[in-house]
Amino acid sequence: MMRNVYIAATAMFWAIVLAFWLSSAWMPQAGQPTGGPADRIISTTELARHASPASCWMAIRGDVYDLATYLPNHPSRPDIIEPWCGKDATWAYDTKTKGRPHSRTADELLAKYRIGKFSP
Ligand code: HEM
Asked: What is the CATH classification number for the domain harbouring 55?
């Protein structure tokens, strides 16, 4: 009887150890990037392939944004923003090309279009 309890308890113990080990295998490791599409690295060459309003990527402050679906909603004339497709547009975004920064609302909107990290 005691022997059965002992065997059951030991089996339970190792089952729990195994469960922890398996769960840690797919958990993100501390100190490592989380990976996945959000953290893909985008080069200047790849960025430059998206230089039209139909496929418009911009690098802004070290991150890359896919702005094709946003362009029609931007409040300025299209010719103000469209020339920045396919380029590092940090300066243009930070100044609106008029020495005025975008609002916090614009910053929050921008974050929704992030597709990766810029590696010039
Ligand atoms: C990178 C090139 C860009 C340029 C040159 C540019 C320029 C401008 C200009 C001239 C205006 C209208 C005038 C003004 O409000 O002062 C404006 C307003 C605005 N832009 Fe842009 N823009 C750019 C990119 C973006 C992006 C990527 C977003 C967001 C995804 C954005 C969001 C907004 C918003 C929300 C406004 C309304 C005013 C504000 O919230 O600051 N813009 N932008």
From this structure: 3.10.120.10
Residue linked to tokens 């089996």:
11
pLDDT in tens, 77-97: 999 999 999 999 999 999 999
Counted domains in the chain: 1
Contact present, 86 and 48 (Cβ < 8 Å): yes
Which residues' Cβ are closer than 6 Å to ligand 1? 58, 67, 70, 74-76, 80-81, 84, 89, 92-93, 96-97, 100, 102-103, 105-106, 109-110, 113
Q: Determine the average pLDDT of the residues in 94-102.
A: 97
Q: What does the DSSP 8-state code read for residue 71?
A: G
Amino acid at 65: Y
Range of the domain at 77: 37-119
